[in-house]
Design brief:
It is a single chain. The chain is an alpha+beta fold. The chain has 27 helices and eleven strands. The strands form three sheets. Strands 6, 7, 8, 9 and 10 form a five-stranded antiparallel sheet that branches. β8 and β9 form a beta hairpin. The longest helix has about 35 residues. It is elongated and about 95 Å long. The protein starts with a helix and ends in a 15-residue tail after the last helix.
Length: about 750
Amino acid sequence: MATFLYKLGRLAFRRRWYVALIWVLLLGLAGAGAATASKSTDDSFSIPGTEAQSAFDLLAERYPGQKADAASARVVFRAPDGQKITEPKNKAAVEKVVGELTGSQVASAPSPFQAHTVSKDGSTAYALVTYKVASNEVTDASRDTLEDARKHGQDSGLTVEMAGSALQKMPETGSTEIIGIIVSAVVLVITFGSLVAAGLPLLTAIIGVGIGISSITALASTLGLSGNTSTLAMMIGLAVGIDYALFIVSRYRAELAEGRDREEAAGRAVGTAGSAVVFAGLTVVIALVGLAVVNIPMLTKMGMAAAGTVVIAVLIALTLIPALLGFAGRRVLARKVRKAHKGGGAGEGGAGDPVAEKPNMGTRWARFVLRRPVWVLVAGIVGLGALAAPAASLQLGLPDDSSQPVKTTQRKAYDMIAEGFGPGYNGPLMVVVDGKNPKAAQTVARTIGGMEDVAAVTPPMPDKAGDTAVFNVVPKSKPSSEKTEDLVHAIRDKRAELKAETGATVLVTGTTAMNIDVSQKLNDALLPYLALVVGLAFLLLIVVFRSVLVPLKAALGFLLSVVAALGAVVAVFQWGWLSGLFGVEETGPIMSMMPIFMVGVVFGLAMDYEVFLVTRMREAFVHGESPGEAVVTGFRHGARVVTAAAVIMISVFAGFIGSSESMIKMIGFGLAIAVFFDAFIVRMAIVPAVLALLGKAAWWLPRWLDKALPNVDVEGEGLRKQLASESAPADKAGDPDPDADPRLTRV
C-alpha cells in the first residue's frame, strides 16, 4: 500500500499539469450536469416492511386517481376577537380566499363551511388544500398562490396562517456556515504559518465538495434523492476534505524539513500519511454505506451520496494535493523556515531549529499523561459518563410543525388548530379497511370511535369497487405524544378481533403513523447496524495496527463519546439547556434517526483521529522505541495537526447549527459536540492513558493472526527499507534553489 501510494504521489507531482486539468474537467462536467438537470428532489418517505407503507401502497392500487403521498396544505382562519368566523363578513372573506386556491397542481380545496371544518366555538376554521403531486413537485408558483391568498385574507381583517407538506422548501443554513469555513481558514494559517499551505486544504476541499454536490444535484431527479442529501454530503465532504489534505500537507512539510527534495517529499507524504487517509476514509465509507442496513431508502441514498463525497475527498488528497504542492514550491513552509533553509539551517523541526529544542505542547501533554495515566483515564471516563447521563431520558420522534420556530406561519397554524379544534387535529390517523363486507368499515369506525384517546372519527369513504374504505381518526393528543403512539398500537392490536368480526383487514397509516413506524424501524435497526459497522471497522483496524487491544480500545472510546454526545443533544434540544445559545426555539423529542445517524457518521470520523494519531505511535514503536516513547513521538508529530483537524471539523459542523431546518440544526450540533468529545477527551486523553497502562501488551497480536493478516504497511516500514536499499542519488540531494522553477525539479 505505502509503496503504491509513494509512486502515485511522485507521479502526481511530476504530471501536475495533467492531474490538475483532470480535476478541473471533472468539476466542469459535474457543474454542467447540475446546471442542466431537473431541480426536483424526492423528500417523501418510503419505508418498506412497515404497516403504514403497506397501507399507502394499497391506497395507490385501489384509488388510482389519488396519490396517498400527495402534498397538502392547511389554510387556517381565525376571526377577530369577539367575532365568529361564520358571520357574513368573515364568511365571505374566507370564501374569497378559498376561491383563490386554484391552479393546475391543485386537486381540491373545499370551503370550511362545506367540509364542516369549523370549530365548535365558531372562532376558527380551516381549508384543506390537496394537490395532485408530491411535496417535492410543488412549484414555486403554487406556493406563491398560497401566500397571496393568505395575505388577502389578512387584509380583510382575519388571522390567516398555513401549514402542511406543500410549504416545504430547501432548508437555509444561514451565515454561520460561512463562519465555520472562515474559522477553518484561520486555524490552518495558525497551524502552518503559511497562506499557501493553509489555502491548499481549503481549495481542494471546495473542489471535492463542488464535484460531489454537483453530481448529487445532477442525479437527484433520476435517483430520487432528497433535498437534505446535498446538505449532508456538503457537511461531511468539507470536514473530511480539509482534514485529509491537512494531514498530507503536514507530512510533506515534515519530509522537506528532513532535507528531502520536493518530489521525494511528496511521494513519502502520500506513501505514509496517504495510507492513513485511505484507511480513515474506508472507515467513514463503511459507516455511511452501512446505513443501508436500516432499509429506509431515503437514509440509504443519503449515506451513499455522502460516502461518494468522502471517496472523492480521498482521491483528491492522494492526487491533487501532491500536484498542487508541485506548483507551490517551498512556499508551503513558513517564512522563518524558508529563511532557515537559505541560511543553511535544517529547517522546521530539524537540528538547530529552536522549535525542535523546546518540547511542543503535544510532547508536554503526552509526558503528563504518562506520569498520571490512571488519573487522566478516570477523569475522562467520569466526565463523559456525566455528560452521557441525559441520554437515559432520550425521547425519539420525527419533527412536525410543533417543532417549528414560533414566528413561522407553520407553527402559528399548528397552534391555531390545537386551540380551536384540539391537538389531535394536527395529525389525524388514516385507517384503511380492506374487505368486501359493505358494513365492515362502519363496524370498524364505530369500534375505534369508542376507544380511549379518540376525539373524532370521520365517515368511511369506500372505493368504486366497494372492497376498500378509508376514514380518519383524530386523537385527543398531539401527533408526537406517547399517547398517540399508544393509540396507534392499540388499534393495530384490535386487528385480529376486528377481522374475526367483519372479515376485513384493518391497516393504520397517515403521516403520524408513518412517523411512528419509522421511529420503530430505526430503533430495531440500531443494534444490528452498530454490530455491522463497528465489527467491520474493528477488523479493518486490526489490519492497520496489527493489534487486538488498540482497535478494541478505539471502539469502546467511540461508544463513550457518542453516548455523551447524545446526552448533550438531549440536554439542549429536549430539555432546553442553553437552547437560546444554539437558536433552539422549541424543545421536543429527538429526531428518530439521530442515534443511528450519529453512530454511523461519528464512528467514521472518530476513527480518522484514531488512525492518524495512533499510526504515528505504531510507526515509532516499529522503529524500536519503547511504548511510552512511542506515545510521546506520536503526540509530538501528530497532536498539533489532529487538534487543528478537530477544530476545523467542529467549525464546519457547527456552521450548520444556523440552519432553518430543525433536523439539520440538530445534526450539526450533534456531530460538532461528538467530534469535540472524541478528539479532545477520548483520543487526546483516554487513548494515551490506556496505551501507557497497557505498555507492550497494547501492540500484542497472536502469531497465527499475524501470519494470516495482509501486511498493508500503513506506517511505511517496507517503503523505508526499499528506499534505503536503492540509495538513489535523488534521495541524497536537496533542491539547489528553493525558488527554482518546479518543472526543473530533479525526478
